[in-house]
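Ticket #4471: structure output looks truncated?

Reporter: J.K.
Steps to reproduce: submitted the chain below (248 residues) through the standard prediction queue, then opened the result file.
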Amino acid sequence: MFYGGEPLTFREMRWLWVPLGIWALASILTSMSGPFGTHEAMKILPRTMYWSAVCAASVGLSMVAVRVNTGQTVWIKLLVWLCFAAILSGGIYAVNITLFSIGSGWGEYLYLLVIVGVSVGVVFSTIQLMRPEIPIPRDDGRMAKFLERLPLEKRAKLIRLEAQDHYLKVVTHAGDSLILMRIGDAAKELEDGFGLQVHRSHWVARGAVSTHKRRAGRDFLTTQDGAEIPVSRNNRAQIEQLMQTMQE
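Returned output as attached by the reporter:
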C-alpha cells in the first residue's frame, strides 16, 4: 500500500526511530544516575548493560501494549497498562533483590511501581503522539474522477474496494460494480487520507467502518455495507487512526 506517496512499510520502519530514540535516551539517563541503589551496587559498564536491557524491555513491551490496546475501550487500555507496569516493576524488583541485594519490602516495590508507571505513561504518550496520522483528504476532485469509472446509478459515497482477480469490486452507498483496475493503483490514486488499504485485497474508505473486532489474534473491520474485512498484521497500527476518523 502507498501512504502519502511512500510505501506504508517504509513509513513504519522510519517510525521505529522514535522508540529507538526513547530507548537510547532512557538508557543513558538511568546508566548515569543509577536509580534504586544500582549506582552504589554496580560499576559503570555493568550498570549501563543492566539499564540498557531494562529500558529495551520497557520500550519493547510498551510497543506491544500499544498494539494490544488498539481499538479497545479506555478502561481496558488502563487495565492493560496497569498490568504492564506491575509486571515490569516486579521483574526489576526481583532482579535487584536476587542479583544485587538491593531493596526489600512492599514500600520499595510500591515506590518502584510509581516510578515505572510514570515512565511507562511517558513512553506510551510519546509513541501515540508520534504514530503516523491519516491526513485529511484534499478536495481536488480525485474521488469524483475515480467514481466516473462506475455506472451513473452506482456513483455515491465510497465504502470499500475489494480485489477480485484482475478486477476491482467498488462498493458505494448505491451498490457495487466491477471495474478493470488493480487495487494497488486504486489505493495510490486515492491516497492522502481518502482511506487505507488494510489488506492486500481490501481497501476501506475513511469513515466507512462500523466496528472493529479481534478473533483468534486476527483483526476484522465491519464496514457500512455489512462486510467483514480482514486486517493484515502490518496494518494493525493503523486501525485506531482509521477508527478515530469516524468520529470527526
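Triage note (M.O.): checked the attachment and the full C-alpha cell line is present. The longest helix spans residues 74-100.
Status: closed, working as intended.
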